[in-house]
Amino acid sequence: MKSIGIIYTANVSNNFSSRSVAVIWYGLAVLLTAGMAVLFGVLLISPELEKTTPDMSKLDIYLGLILYSASLLGLGINLNSLGFSSMIKEKSRGNIQSLLATPLRLKDIWVGKSLAVFVPGLIAAEIMTALALVITNYIYFVPTVGFIFNPWIAVTSFIVFPVIYFFLGLLVYLIGLTGKPVNANVIAQVFLPLFVNIVIQLSLRTNFMDYTSWPFVLVNAAIALAMAAIVIILQNRVTKEKVVLSY
Predict the structure, then answer these.
(1) Residues 244, 100: contact at Cβ < 8 Å?
(2) According to the model, what pLDDT value does residue 193 have?
(3) How many domains does the chain have?
């Protein structure tokens, strides 16, 4: 654990050495979340609240979409930007090869570097989701119908979806270490739109789940377990031989 902490601390500093880049990416995530919340507010939430008897189930769904998207953007943009750029730098500068000559275990290096990308994204996502919950409620719901809070939405947005991205980050860094960073980047970039499309299609085409239900939590948990299984199966690829041959 101590080795992982050393790698984590050093890589967080390296990843945020260019603060302007970090500000741009996180600023983009905040702007996209705010823009989406405003769009939902104008087109969906306000018209529903203007009705004599607002449909609370619809308001739950609209809020759920905002919160889920805030979590998704915070984690997704972080991995797609900082994760890929850090892998490219480390491979090109030979940082990984230097670490292989130290007493540090390769799997500790892998986990530490993955956490250095995941944890900042997790912090950003949790803050953005919490702010989206509070601000959306006090702008739209509190004056009319009171504070809206759905536990299933909260569990999915604050806990289960971050777990998915934790294992995705491990997978992306595993591939980046033992292969070409470009291949890892393809997975990171494709996952976000593919995941969103799957969730939308399941919601639209089946009666099994909606964004405010426990089945939606189960679907996300199943995806997290699938990601975990893939990482566990592939972790034996994290060997010094594989890393050296990847250059």
Answers:
(1) yes
(2) 74
(3) 1
Cβ pair 86, 113 in contact under 8 A: yes
Of 201 and 129, more confident: 129
Note down the domain range covering 43: 2-245
User: Which amino acid belongs to residue 4?
Assistant: I
- The DSSP call for residue 160 is I
CA 61 to CA 15: how far, in whole Å?
Answer: 36
3-state class of 109 per DSSP? Answer: helix
**Pseudo-torsion of CA 147, 204, 210, 195, nearest 10°?**
-100
Place of tokens 């536990």: 151
Let me know the angle formed at the C-alpha of 4 by 126 and 171, rounded to the nearest 5 degrees: 65
Q: What is the pTM of this model?
A: 0.86
Which pLDDT score, from 0 to 100, does residue 205 have?
A: 60
C-alpha distances in Å from residue 149, one per residue of 38, 56, 135, 145, 152: 19, 11, 12, 12, 9
**Spatial contact of 67 and 129, defined as CB atoms under 8 Å apart:** yes
